Amino acid sequence: MSSTQLTTWFNVAADSDFSIYNLPFGVYSDANVKHHACSAIGDTIIDLFELESADVFNISRTVLEQPVLNDFIALGKPVTNAVRLTLQALLTNPDSVLKTNADLYKRVVKKQSEVKMLMPVKVGDYTDFYSSIDHATNIGIMLRGKENALMPNWKHLPVGYHGRASSICVSGHTFRRPKGQQKPADAEVPVYGPSKLLDFELETAFIIGKSTEMGESVSTANAADYIFGMVLFNDWSARDIQAWEYIPLGPFLSKNFASTISPWIVTLEALEPFRVKGYTQDPPLLPYLQYQGDKNVDIKLEVAIQPEGGKPSTICTSNYRYMYYTMEQQLAHHTVNGCNINIGDMMASGTISGPEPHEFGSMMELTWRGTKPLQLNDGTERKFINDGDTVIVTGYCEKDGKRVGFGKSEAKVLPAN
Ligand code: CA
After folding, report:
1. What's the whole-model pTM score?
2. 3-class secondary structure for the chain?
3. Which domains, and CATH codes, for the chain?
4. 35: CA distance to ligand 1 center in Å?
């Protein structure tokens, strides 16, 4: 996308995540529509299936009336990028068919507040990385002390594990506090019950837009061709269950009960203008992990807790640019052994913490394992997440007055049953 200034005939607030430069993809439903692909501008959605009744994109309408975007994404970036740019042209041209045809406009344009956003993709496989150096260092200090905070492999490869796709939900859901085995420090044997240390993890995830065959590897240079876009990702975690179960194979039931994504997939193309230089990676990485250019992204991230019946309190502000490894490196590493990837696969960043205490991306770090409780605006304290709390993750890029945002990922914790 060019850096030229674009003006839409839509009324878009200056602080809207959904400017003319964004145009993300999602799936919605309402009283009349079971599921249609859509985009967003300002506080409205654009029904792409209805819009294509005017043949503006020259693509099959069938892919726009599926429950998920996988078939649309499978058309390939040359097509999906063209759809986005055509939409951008329609929304900037005051003589476009969408502006001048009142009947079409009525079918296509709907208030975001009046539709329900659905899971945008069918996630076949989900991987979670551990790529924020501040997060890995904080957790390492808690577990092993300052001297051995980072494990010897950490600066040589993007550590990750295969997670669970079935419990990834779109923003707006609720879930029950998970139950499971925990072993209190003073107990001889484990106990079973609701997690007492329920946590969020501030993450983003990228969505695979192009499949590979087994045996094929994606290079850092080509990785962008395989990444359709990004969403916000909250990797809910039960720290007490995790502490007992994770040795030696990593997290299991402490992570697979729920994850929450934002409903709009912001395309990699919309994020390109916000690329920034990544971390200096020292020691140097093996050649397959090296890359050229500015491959990190300046995404401002924020987490708020909204207690039952109360107002949200911001508890953390961080930034995606704090990631030590880039998405391109994560994907290159993921496929270097020939592991095949499929459209709709989701790969999460790992908790994104910054160097400052207010930039820590989990309660575990913000309250330092519960030793320094946070105070919310209503005066109540939190060590971890309470029943009735809604955790709201937001994120956006902004540069030269152009804003491209993700909307939000929010979910509410219900008491264990
Ligand atoms: Ca995680």
Report:
1. 0.97
2. CCCCCCCCCCCCCCCCCECCCCCCEEEEECCCCCCEEEEEECCEEEEHHHHHHHCCCCCCHHHHHCCCCHHHHCCCHHHHHHHHHHHHHHHHCCCCHHHHCHHHHHHHEEEHHHCEEECCCCCCCEEEECCEHHHHHHHHHHHHCHHHCCCCCCCCCCCEEECCCCCEEECCEEEECCEEEECCCCCCCCEEEECCCEECCEEEEEEECCCCCCCCCCCCCCHHHHEEEEEEEECCEEHHHHHHHCCCCCCCCCCCCCEEECCCEEEHHHHHHHEECCCCCCCCCCHHHCCCCCCEECCEEEEEEECCCCCCEEEEEEEHHHECCCHHHHHHHHHCCCCCCCCCCEEECCCCCCCCHHHCCCHHHHCCCCCCCEECCCCCEECCCCCCCEEEEEEEEEECCEEEEEEEEEEEEECCC
3. 26-117 (2.30.30.230), 126-414 (3.90.850.10)
4. 30
